[in-house]
## 1
Amino acid sequence: MKLGLVCRPFSFHGGIETATAGLLGALRREGHAVELISTRRQPDVPGVPVHRVPVLRHPSTLRLLSFALAAQREAARHGYDLVQSHERALRQDLYRAGEGCHRAYLAAMGRRPGADPYHRLVCALERRIFRLRAARHVVAISRLGKAEIERLYGTAPSDVTLVYNGVDLERFHPDHRERHRAPTRERLGIAGEAWTVLFVGSGFERKGLGPLLEGFARLTDPGRRLVVAGKGDVAGHRRLAARLGLDDRVVWTGPVPDVERLYAAADAVALPARYEPFGNVHLEALASGVPVLTSARAGGSEIVRAGDNGWVVDEVAAAAIAAGLTALRDAPPGGWSARARASVEGFTYAAQARAFTALYDRLRR
């Protein structure tokens, strides 16, 4: 099948393999002729034609709309059997709602579109896709996301299919612990015996870093450490950490290309998100044999079983997070590693590509 895939720029290079890149490779192994439609910032992808379209970069509304228009024109030029978009485009056969619902995100963050032109445009594009059928079919990446689309936009359940993300089970593996744990901790200035929690994510407010810091401050272990990796309001959260007396207990790394080494150094991963459609961090941590504390507002909580491979908090608040971290501090007999790893071994890119292939066949019929 000749497939046009519309997505924002991603890279295979520098040790970073995004979820889009992993899926693209698996689709090619399924026999599909995949071509990429992206912006001029998209690097070359070996073996994949890349069609780069011009996009206005500022303001954000024009960037979003200009890409939607340019991607639609580009897709029409190539005679694809199906067009699959991972962005909010004007027209596509299949839309993958990897970012969930913007309306649901705004509600979770206590906001409304109001007069903000960007939020109003995103919500208008969503309404066009979910309610006005600018996509023939929608893929949600969690049960939570599927339910939101159906509830907020009245989309028929038969028009929304759940396809979970995949994870690179070789890159993220418990065996890396033996090789990377000690040198990574040494580089970060963390003692070998220190119980260490890892937070990975960009968008600190949405992903719950503030409540995590507050919950972490309630723990009594004097040697505990928290590693924060990713992009966000570092200055504001560092001030919060200082007010909580955590200055010497939090390590700030910024974005890290070889994040698998951080998983190897961690004893637990925490992502108590206020809104998260799924979050590949869940899969990466569990594949690495590390238990995950998450929130019921994250789609990734659907694969976390309290006391077996992690912990789920119903409320994104300090007390609940502290209690969850305490539960993860006391590992079950045999430890967390085997339980965590076993819980995600079915979440492969190959399984994800097979699910998409079944949808392609259905749409063509």
## 2
Amino acid sequence: MGFKGTLFGNRVARRLFWSFALASLVPIVTSAVFTVAEAYRSSPAPTLVGSLAALGGAYPRALAISSVVILLLAIAQSRRILRPLSRLVAGTRKIAGGDFATRVDLDGDDEFRELGNAMNAMARKLGRQFETLTALRDIDGLILASSQTEGILESVAARVATTEHGCDIAVLLIDGDHPELARLYRRSGNGGAEKCSQVRCAVSPELRQWLAQRDRGSLEQAAALRSRLPALAPPDDNYRVLVIPLVHGEQLRGALFAAFQPGTVAEPELDSLGELANRIAVAISATEREQQLVRRAHFDTLTGLPNRQLCHDRLRQALAVARRQEQKLAVVFIDLDGFKHVNDSLGHAAGDRLLREASVRLRAATRETDTVARLGGDEYVVILPSVHGALEVEVLVASLMEALKWPFHIDGEQCFISASVGVTIFPEDGGTAEELLRKADTAMYSAKESGRARYVFFAKEMDDRIHDRRMLQSDLRSALANRELFLVYQPQLDLATHEVVCAEALLRWRHPTRGLIAPSIVLPVLEETGLVESIGRWTLRTALEELSRWRSQGVSIPRVAVNVTTRQLFDAGFVSLIDECLHSTKLPGSCLEIELTEASLVTDFARADRVLRELAERGIRTAIDDFGTGYSSLGYLKELNFDRVKIDRAFIEGLPDEKSLAIVKAVLGIAHSLRKEVIAEGIESDAQRRQLAKLQCEIGQGFLFCKPLLGPAFGEWLGQHEATRLLKEVFASNG
């Protein structure tokens, strides 16, 4: 049974067996025939011995004849076997080369025919899978190359029509902003050239819930969809519809519907359509992400206005139109005055709300053809195309400024801001977007310097001033190495005892060609060039070394005061630098006083407070300069660790005028309530000194006592002043 079930059960093997059996009988039969013939030929009555002898003589001839017969049988059988094998090999090579349409048709009813049929079935299956994979690959390429959902769905439907025959494809896309609405894209799967049809339809909460419950897909009767989504409407209720939700992350984005004619749906088709649904979900997500990236790249995320990049693009386009039509165009550069105060006092969230409200007002105050863009911070640009001249621009700019002057209601408080505005006009002020924006920015800064809350048209003199400032920036970079920078010192006196309690170190720059540069110019240039840290380190070391020399000469002075910028204060190595300078000069921390502006403190209150406490631990005193001119919250001042406040000279120079006197009294009252000493700077008359002493201002500074002097000259003045003061005390005690 085993042999019959294996060998005789195989038709090709059976054929080979009988061929070889027949071939093995040929020599025997042939030999017998020759033997009998030879025996009868030699003897009429053959004997056994004669027969054997005849057989021996006939065998070689029989063997030769049988060999020829075997060879012919082997050739015939080999050709019969090799012919279908060669056709099978050729078909295999074509399939391996991607020709899945190859068919191998063999005659007969043996295993070769069965193998050929199996190969044909495999080729059809591989061809279908390859078509599906190719379609999915093309769809992936479309997702990467296109940002338009409609175009992707059109191409997807066309490719599906070639792979899923007898199938109608529809895609439902739910609107992300309005989930009660959707778009339904449909196309028949017959491979035609028609376009996808698009229908707007409503999506009920019940439909969304029903789709979400389909999980990864389910086959539904057409009638079940007709009641839930009438716009889909399969042609026959006997159709079966594969419903696959389109889900990305946790959000339902829509659904894929594949309507099959009765009896045509197969499991492989369901799998490929599931892959297709995944691709469509990715395509929708990729498209939305692309649109978000485009929006982020071209629009300000806070206000929704065009950003700097889009502003430049639109300005270039507007300039091209203005040149072609020979029209004028204006660029308005706006910077909000007072925004920093709102940001610092009410917080960044309140500042953001103000910026959004300001953006709405600016947009409402412009024409439909105008562009309002936010460059960043509190800076805006308005592009005004098709203007007739400066008079029309003035009217438009005035409406912009008017829109911003009304109070902003932020967190239950009224906030007031204004705007400094710079204006340029094409073609008078420039021919490129970059030039017009730069000059409008220059004009805006001129408006700020002129007192803020005003607009200024660009003038050539402004460019000259900017050029001059840039030259100073360049020269300042080599000023320290060329020993052009130096320090002068001005004393601070106790107004009751006339004793010098501190010397303030003041930075000066003597330019090789321009002479002495005003401090009001030097300090802003320092900030702009980024040299404030290196020059600040030099100033600190030099002032402490000078104090050490005065003390070695026998001149008694408690401490020296050094001005420090915000950048220096927040530098990670600032406290270590002070420790190093004190160590190298062998001076205690009580010999140093740091002067800061209010603005540097409110920039980052918590960080500033930490640094001030570290300084206080070393005995270093802190004074707030220009008190009353900044935007510090009294709550912050109450918590900060500082020792003195300096009343700005702007309040002192008006004394003894009643208004100035009222302001000085108020500042003194606030400072004394915080238990801080007060320094009045800018005292130039004895009447001012007496008035301040009467108001119990502790310390005074100004030209009345001494002008700023170089280190050696200041040391001499200190000695003379101390001697004079002691003589006056002696005379006073002697009556």
## 3
Amino acid sequence: MNGLDEAEAARRLAAEGPNVLPDPDRRDLWAILLEVAREPMFMLLLASGVVYLVIGDPREAAVLMAFATLSVSIAVLQGYRSERALAALRDLTSPQATVVRGGERRRIASRDLVRGDVIAVAEGERTPADAILREGSDLEVDESMLTGESAPAGKTPSRGAGAMAAPGGEATPFLYSGTLIVRGQGLAEVAATGSRSEIGRIGGALKSIDNRPARLSLETRRIVQAAGLAALVVCGGVVLLTGLVRGSWLQGVLGGLSIGMAMLPEEFPLVLAVFMVMGAQRIARAKVLTRHAAAIETLGAATVLCTDKTGTLTQNRMTIFCAWADGDLTSWAAGEATPMAVRALVGLGARASAPHPFDPMEQAFHDAAPVDHDDGRVIETTYGLTRGRMAMAQVWVDADGVRHIAVKGAPEAVLALCRLDGAAADEVTRAVEAIAARGGRVLAIARGRHDDGDLPLAIDGFSLAFAGLVGLADPLRSTAAGAVADCLRAGVRVVMVTGDYPATARAIAAQAGLPEGAILTGDDLRGLSDEALAERIRGVSVFARTLPEQKLRIVTALQAAGEVVAMTGDGVNDAPALKAADIGIAMGGRGADVARAAADLVLLDDDFASIVGAMRMGRRIYDNLRKAMGFIVAVHVPIAGLALLPLALGWPLFLAPAHVAFLEMIIDPVCSTVFEAEPAEADVMRRPPRDPREGLFDRRRLLTSVGQGLTTLAVVGGAYWAASRLGMAGDALRAVAFLTLVLSVIGLVASNRSFGGALSALRRPTPAFALIIGVALAAATGVMAVPLLRDLFHFAPLPWAGVGVALAGALATLAALDVLRRMTAPGAPR
């Protein structure tokens, strides 16, 4: 059972491929290209190009075809970047497996498993590949995903070779990829991977990225559909009115196409997709993986953050620092050897722990007093924790056949098992309080012998003697107190949910800076109705002595009290609570696979500070998304106005399809790069959580964006008038107005980069903003200065006076937008 060596594993991986199933959601380059080619903007550009070809203007048609090609290229590039980002996230969220290579255990991505690998399987984990159980006891597996049978199937180790049999049946050694270990642990040999596994053969697929539509996706889809319908109606009306009233069908068609392109906010879905994917990547760099896109938008709305203690607020490095026996409390510093006076007691706790522990608490017992495996004792059976009994026991048989029982568990549970009461129980309770008040987790130890034939069905059947208490310390993470303070400043209530003794939980909560509040225990929860719990939970800061399955009641009670709940968890029994929470957060390091599958976010480092960092990032992403969407609405107003007004007033076309397409080439990159890269607002973690029902636009924000667009349109009209007063006419006037519009669009970007307005944004330049300004100015200069491009856009050479008018217009736009913002948005929106 030493497993393969690395060289052989690498050879088999290269020959047989990774342990993954085909992903039907993954898009290749051709699929992205086909999807983009169906976009309305691309269709409008092609239609405009065809019209110009029909009327004999191949140069104009070539410009529009070039813009169509560029539009497709940008969209395909964004789609390809998104796919690469999603692929990276799929790899990060790929399940992990414990494999034995060259006699050493290590954690690797399940995709790197190969046939012949020896893997460790344990309760709460999904089997990463088809395998044959070689070592293990009391192993039970939920195979319902393959067989439909709800009852778990028992597994028996086998040393024999042979092919995998069909799933189903008791006492077989076969484990199947994706099935859930519900009890026990063991070692198994991988028999088939990837598409060669049972789940691969029947066509099943596990998705690492959930593509369910988020609320924002539905909202932006409705906005685009409404705008598209309006654009279609206006476009058709312009064509009919211009053709019927003025007899100019050609001008009507060109004007209608220009207005349709100007009114269509096709950037919305593109921007949302880019923000969600890039946001997930940014959050991943903060050690948090996003499994559901909806979690990003919900992060900023969380009002309560329920966190466990061990490994999240604390370091999950348990050490035994004291022990109590026969009325004496013995303490020692971390790193010192266990005193001889209590070494036997601690050793008894090690006998009650798993022989090869994964749990840090059980590892602490083995570190403090290693079990002597050469004394002839072997484990006969194990009694695990149960819903009603927070204690476990192991039965060891010595060389003479005598059965020795070692028990450890919660003090109240062990006291009940030992039938200890009266003065003796009171003395133990006082010792428990003393250890817990020092922030230690307290476990009670008991011993016994069994000489009466068959073993009992439960621990209650043994005659046990109380041995003593052990205190385990798990130091607070250095980042925990600061992260809790950040939450409180952001209006997010922090609640600790732990299985620890109440006094221990209170001490750790005080160290972490949680505000004082009531403490409820698991027994309290059992005695409260759902209505009573929803009422009492408002003032609770710590839940102690809770069972994992009680987390679901806590989540639902908080939600009934009107809270938006984020909940952490790592075990199999945590999965319902993680699924029910508004934001489920699973532990990536110690979490069970089923917990990670149920969660929205996965913490790679299991650190509470990472949750707060993700919350900060989520608020930043949502803020920047609002800024981008506000800019899109604002910028389409002057473009649509300049396309519509000439037709309404009987003037020659001011914006042809080529002009609108040029502006769209600026808008798309601006939205997907400048706003996405904006740093967080200074008060991002000093605002209360936003209302989760709040959309991207309310009436005030929509009116503000429309007001910005109308202001820009007025400035461009003013520049047109000023240039005409200076003696310019025809194509020169069009050039002045167009240059003013391009510069004003940059002003709109600057104004929307910060909730504080353009002046606030200009004080914090970013590389993305500087790049977009440079590109926009270079493009505008090119179409104004290069004769060929100038002719294609129907511009005349601009005198310096015209350039001055355009620059003055841009400055006027900045000033007017700043005044408008002060009038309509006195404070940063929540």
